[in-house]
Amino acid sequence: MRKLIIATNNKGKFREMKQILNGLPLEIVPLPAPLETEEGEESYWENASRKALEAVSRWGEISLADDSGLEIESLGGFPGLKSKRVGESDEERINLILSLLEGKSWEERKALFRCVIAIATPEGILEKAEGIVEGFIAYEPRGKGGFGYDPIFFLPELGKTMAELSLEEKNKVSHRGRALMKAREILEKICLGQYGKSSK
């Protein structure tokens, strides 16, 4: 059975990804060693594809990587590509966002999560899958699940933050879950030999 390397050092993200991708005719494995690639600020796609291509180059296995970010409308899309680099910890990042939105109305707290996934293979395939979910930034953190900004990302249709959802619930509605379902379709075709080389 061929392997699929999930090119992330984030254990929570690996767990989410593996659950959605389980059942494919691939052995889903974590990174054998940390990546050397550093994320930049060109685009989510540049970051994701760079990581996937490094993994496939180093270990010769199908590789999947993502880049994702929180985009807040009233802050001009901030933190966006800087989502993981605006603080030293999740708590610091959450506190920064809450301070920037202090005094802002509910309507001014509109936000979205965006996830872009890159899939690379030793045969030269490079494909993209993207997912978004819209919501609002809560006035205070709620919930103990998830990671990153999940405790302050409120989903009005569910009346909960992302951190208040079970992993199964989160994977059905999250930006990463939506992107991974598209990625799963691509991987199924790759496994069946139905994919040609990408021109991306």
Task: Walk me through what this model shows.
This protein is of the alpha/beta class. The protein has a single domain (3-191), classed as Maf protein (Alpha-Beta Complex), CATH 3.90.950. It is 31% helix and 24% strand. A hairpin with a 5-residue loop joins strand 4 and strand 5 (126-137). The two termini are 27 Å apart. The mean pLDDT is 93.
List the helices and strands and how they pair.
Blueprint: E1 3-6, H1 11-21, E2 27-30, H2 44-59, E3 62-72, H3 90-100, E4 110-120, E5 126-137, E6 153-155, E7 160-161, H4 167-173, H5 175-191
Please provide the ordered H/E string of secondary-structure elements.
Answer: EHEHEHEEEEHH
Strand order of the largest sheet: 2-1-3-4-5-6-7
The outline comes out as globular
- Predict the CATH topology: Maf protein
> In terms of per-residue confidence, which ranges show pLDDT below 50 for 5 or more consecutive residues?
none
